[in-house]
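Anyone up for a design puzzle?
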């Protein structure tokens, strides 16, 4: 994960290698995510579906041993 505080963008790389950027994420939300006992649970409750996102990189499923888990909204879950 990384965070650009000037643009309020959270960048997340998932276990399957997919990289997404979430716009409008506050620094406090980023800090809370870093400190969460379960980052996946925090992400699913407080970020997924609440912020617009763009895909920066997504591996083709045939190129990885980890199959992505798609949500109803088309984003990928942190496993």
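Challenge accepted. My sequence:
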């Amino acid at each position: 994960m990384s965070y650009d505080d000037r643009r309020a963008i959270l960048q997340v790389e998932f276990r399957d290698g997919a990289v997404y950027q979430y716009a409008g994420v506050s620094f406090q939300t980023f800090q809370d995510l870093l400190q969460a006992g379960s980052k996946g649970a925090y992400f699913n409750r407080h970020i997924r579906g609440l912020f617009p996102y763009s895909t920066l990189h997504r591996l083709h499923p045939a190129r990885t041993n980890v199959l992505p888990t798609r949500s109803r909204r088309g984003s990928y879950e942190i496993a």
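A detail worth pointing out: Residues 28 and 34 are 10 Å apart (CA to CA).
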